[in-house]
Amino acid sequence: MESYKQEFIQFMVDCNVLKFGEFTLKSGRKSPFFMNAGAYVTGAQLKKLGEYYAKAIHENYGDDFDVLFGPAYKGIPLSVATTIAYSELYGKEIRYCSNRKEVKDHGDTGILLGSKINDGDKVVIIEDVTTSGKSIEETFPIIKAQGDVEIVGLMVSLNRMERGLSSNASALEEIQQKYGFPANAIVTMEDVIACLYNKEYQGKILIDDKLKAAIDDYYAEYGI
């Protein structure tokens, strides 16, 4: 495994973002692991997170895009932190944009927060994690409604490696098949297991045999 992937997995654990136990997801699935990007709360954490995302986006999609779109609410700080990191690492000014949950009818009106999306813009979508692809169903029409816009791709931090909403393909593969743009992640759950299973980190074994069995059972039902 590449060293930066192991560093990112340990970073998620250190920030209490990647957790293990019993969780009910937005999709309704009950999972033995959970990733919560809302737990990145300090300046140092957000700076480092933005750098990981910026490097992954640059590696997968290059520099030929204009806007980084982070769906509300967790995508808002992700898009802000990553545009800052992108400017510092690669010297290119990328605009950030997010949606509002409610349309604003006064002052800075409309459904968008941050930059407007204009005809001809190329957009990369940034999210914390995609379990079933449900969130993209909400995000895609918002972006396409702004005009003649090209979506370059989606970047998430963790690929949960689960089936999507309507096929046996993974959520990220299903997104690519349905919407026609690539979807990538900084790390996969396969990477996480390889990094943490029966290996001590910070004085603890986070994925022991019991938890590994629960993860295996989960993937037997929902995995690709």
Architecture overview:
The protein has helices at 3-14, 43-61, 75-90, 134-144, 171-179, 189-196, 209-222, and strands spanning 18-24, 30-35, 67-69, 95-104, 110-114, 122-130, 150-159, 183-188, 200-201, 204-205. The protein is an alpha/beta fold. Strands 5-4-3-6-7-8 form a six-stranded mixed β-sheet, sandwiched between helices. Helix 2 crosses helix 3 (75-90). The protein is globular and about 50 Å long. It starts with a helix and ends with a helix.
Short description:
The chain is α/β, with parallel strands linked by helices and 224 residues long. It is 40% helix and 27% strand.
Shape descriptor reads globular
Give the distance, in angstroms, between the N- and C-terminal Cα atoms. 21 Å
As residue ranges, the low-confidence spans are none
Describe the main β-sheet briefly: 6 strands, mixed
Mean pLDDT: 90
Task: For the structure shown, list the relevant keywords.
224 residues; 10 strands; 6-stranded mixed β-sheet; alpha/beta; 27% strand
Blueprint (SSEs and pairs):
Elements: H1 3-14, E1 18-24, E2 30-35, H2 43-61, E3 67-69, H3 75-90, E4 95-104, E5 110-114, E6 122-130, H4 134-144, E7 150-159, H5 171-179, E8 183-188, H6 189-196, E9 200-201, E10 204-205, H7 209-222
